[in-house]
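Side project, low priority. Logging it here so it doesn't get lost.
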Amino acid sequence: MILISKLQAYINYEAKDPTFLRTALTHKSYIKSKSADPECRDHNEKLEFIGDAVLDLIVADRLYKMFPADNEGN
């Protein structure tokens, strides 16, 4: 957990829950590796999925507002 505190100091941001930050930075393949930290039990796949969905929504909303009179597919 010491690396997480160093990261937080470096980016000048303190997460409410450092475990959540660790999860956000952990790839699924690391969990399965032999060198994985035993404290690290979860990976960022669900967070990646949610983030992609949020970005899709923002981009779709922006395009819809930029081109309100266009037909779908143009």
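Brief comment: The helical segments are 2-11, 18-24, 28-32, 45-66.
Revisit when time allows.
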